[in-house]
């Protein structure tokens, strides 16, 4: 029989991801993002990379689940960036175990996270690439508004990518302005008069 109190606790816990900041931005000097915001875009990236993969047997559902749960432990251990991790032990596996042991579907979540962390399957590699590409996109957005440090961070992120699809997407991200999708032609008359007949 399900313990609905534990399920309610789980749903409250995942809400903490929206209040947990991604701490790397502290060192970058600009920008901010919660773990939940990072997770949301990672899911879209994971789906995109899965669709780009040539392997017809790829499990897109599993990739999406990995993207959803890849930072779940950070509701308990917070987001420790690379500087923090040099001096702090991050007990993510304990956090995952303590959480998933309380849920009737906890073993599925634990298995998904374990596969993701091992990086042995194509699905795990794609999900990790989605995680890194999300960071790359965030850095490019900061570059485009003038943070010169962000450019120095890009090469290390690019080198982490595991799949050809992710590497190709990374090149496209770096080569485009982050406002291209909506701003388009910056000389277009639309930005002056919105195609109105009068000048008001």
From TrEMBL:
GO terms for cellular component: cytoplasm. Residues 31-145 form the HD/PDEase domain. GO terms for molecular function: 5'-deoxynucleotidase activity; metal ion binding. SUPFAM superfamilies: HD-domain/PDEase-like (SSF109604). Its cofactor is Mn(2+); Co(2+). It comes from the Bacteria. PANTHER family: 5'-DEOXYNUCLEOTIDASE HDDC2. Homodimer. This is 5'-deoxynucleotidase. It comes from Candidatus Buchananbacteria bacterium RIFCSPLOWO2_01_FULL_39_33.
């Amino acid at each position: 029989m399900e313990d609905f109190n534990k399920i309610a606790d789980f749903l409250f816990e995942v809400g903490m991801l929206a209040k947990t900041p991604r701490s790397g931005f502290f060192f970058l000097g600009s920008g901010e993002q919660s773990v939940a915001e990072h997770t949301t875009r990672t899911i879209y990236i994971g789906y995109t990379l899965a669709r780009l993969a040539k392997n017809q047997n790829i499990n897109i559902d599993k990739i999406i689940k990995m993207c959803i749960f890849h930072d779940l432990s950070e509701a308990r251990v917070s987001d420790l960036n690379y500087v923090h991790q040099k001096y702090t032990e991050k007990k993510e596996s304990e956090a995952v175990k303590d959480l998933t042991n309380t849920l009737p579907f906890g073993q599925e979540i634990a298995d998904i996270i374990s596969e993701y962390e091992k990086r042995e399957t194509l699905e795990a590699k794609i999900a990790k690439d989605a995680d890194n590409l999300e960071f790359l996109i965030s850095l490019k957005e900061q570059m485009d508004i003038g943070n010169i440090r962000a450019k120095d961070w890009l090469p290390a992120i690019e080198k982490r990518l595991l799949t050809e699809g992710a590497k190709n997407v990374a090149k496209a991200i770096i080569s485009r302005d982050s406002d291209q999708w909506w701003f388009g032609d910056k000389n277009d008359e639309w930005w002056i008069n919105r195609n109105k007949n009068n000048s008001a």
